Amino acid sequence: MEPHAFVIFGASGDLTVRKLIPAIFHLFQGKLLPQPFVLLGVSRTEFTDDAFREKVVFDSPYFPEASEEDKKAFAQLLHYEPIDTAEAADYAKVKNRLHELTSGEQIPENVIFYLSTPPSLYTTIPEYLAEHGLNQIDKGWKRLVIEKPFGYDETSARRLNQHLNQFFDEDSIYRIDHYLGKETVQNLLVARFANGIFEPLWNRNYIHHVQITSAEDIGVGSRGGYYDTSGALRDMVQNHLLQVVAHLAMEPPLLADAQSIRSEKLKLFQSLRPITGQQVEEQVVRGQYISADLGGKNVNGYREEKGVPGDSRTETYVGMKFFIENWRWAGVPFYLRTGKRLPTKVTEAVITFKTPPHRLFRDEADFHHTFNQLIIRIQPHEGLALHFGMKVPGQGFRVKDVNMDFHYADLTDADVPEAYERLLLDCMRGDATLYARGDSVEAAWAFIDPILEAWGNDESKLFGYPAGTWGPVEADGLFQNHGSRWRNPCTNLTDSDQFCEL
């Protein structure tokens, strides 16, 4: 890995303190940072270097087990420059400070610019960096990292991409989605393409349907004002969950590199059958949590949350059924749901296989009550479980559901990195495999936009669901005439038939 400078815009913000600095600190502890390395925090707040170090390192609650010695050594890598990010002239301060830091450490002009800022600055900052020559690559590479949202719809996403590409090449733009940094999301590709037991069955001939659930047990909290302009479809489905769909359903890439994997994802997004007009009402259910009593305590409904209008029609739940139009997946329904104020916090993908064409053990009371299922738990208790039927000891052929399972926690000799650690290290190495590409972002929006357009009509249905339940009962109707139902997951991955931990 080449020596470089790491510049964080929005360095005094919550994401920097809570995620970015702790992730870089863990890389420092693991001796994974390049030598030499400097980090420059940039924000409006009037910090000195020492005040910045105090805030993000010494006063931070996110270094509970770190030694004072490690903290002090790490803090010496951190520096700070206060500027008004909306003022072009102030970027001269960034340029001068970078020159001072890198020349002193003999670091080449390799720089990562991380925009931990409101999306409104995604066009401003790159333009002002370019105005001061900070995007020039004649003496070293430059990389630009931006957080979601990558636009508000397909049109704004394309406009953002076009603007960024005026100042940075597409290969230099890293659109970060922390979901892709999760080990279990990455493991979807390994489970599929490294195992002969799964890939031959991974198609319409053997798979009955696919479910993806991403549930949160909390409400919108203090984010009500922001969330009301976004909603679950934009906030979760367009980015995080469609990326999970891509890992589950994409074709095998030629190579395990960024270009090959991201190109296959693009093909997958382009193969999503559009949901338009009347189909939106038939295939997509949107809901909004309402007040309920949970454990003897009354929980606010969404419209009662701080910053949320009393007549808001923003969805806090989405359930949908969709199809992928290619040879592998023709006719196989995919079911996806996400929501707030559901019974527990859990994200998983469930691959449900078809039953044998002839049921040899015909007594329904004795036959195991579920399909064969591969459950891939993304969080919590990350792992995999394979459900299948086995004979109960004794007379006859009574069949019982059993499972084989794997838990990441069992890998006691392996350290599972936090998502941002993996993603930041990949960016430092110049590996964009786990970052979204501009054309894929636009393709994902192209699938989502017709749904948003249909919902723009005040006549569109919005169903209430009591906080602490699995969403609107209308979402169960997505399985109509398909002989299945939602799997309501417990926090515990295994033994959920004996006890369900929520």
Structure, described:
- With 502 residues, this protein is of the alpha/beta class.
- It has two domains: 4-147, Rossmann fold; 180-479, Dihydrodipicolinate Reductase, domain 2, CATH 3.30.360.
- It has 13 helices and 17 strands.
- It has a nine-stranded mixed β-sheet. Strands 3-2-1-4-5-6 form a six-stranded parallel β-sheet, with helices on both faces.
- Strand 4, helix 5 (124-131) and strand 5 (142-147) form a beta-alpha-beta unit.
- Helix 9 packs across helix 10 and helix 9 crosses helix 13 (438-455).
- The radius of gyration is 24 Å and the shape is globular.
- The mean pLDDT is 91.
Supply database-style keywords.
9-stranded mixed beta sheet, 17 strands, 502 residues, 6-stranded parallel beta sheet, alpha/beta, single chain, Dihydrodipicolinate Reductase, domain 2, 30% helix, Rossmann fold
List the helices and strands and how they pair.
Elements: E1 4-9, H1 14-29, E2 37-43, H2 49-58, H3 68-75, E3 78-82, H4 91-105, E4 111-115, H5 124-131, E5 142-147, H6 154-165, E6 173-176, H7 183-193, E7 207-215, H8 224-227, H9 232-249, H10 258-270, H11 278-283, E8 284-290, E9 292-294, E10 297-299, E11 317-322, E12 334-339, E13 346-353, E14 373-379, E15 383-391, E16 399-407, H12 419-429, H13 438-455, E17 463-466
Succession of helices and strands: EHEHHEHEHEHEHEHHHHEEEEEEEEEHHE
Question: Biggest sheet: strands side by side, in what order?
Answer: 16-15-14-13-7-12-11-8-17
The parts where pLDDT drops under 50 for at least 5 residues are none
Overall structural domain count: 2
Named at the architecture level, the CATH assignment of the largest domain is 2-Layer Sandwich
- CATH hierarchy class name of the largest domain: Alpha Beta
- Morphology call: globular
Radius of gyration over C-alpha positions, nearest whole angstrom: 24 Å
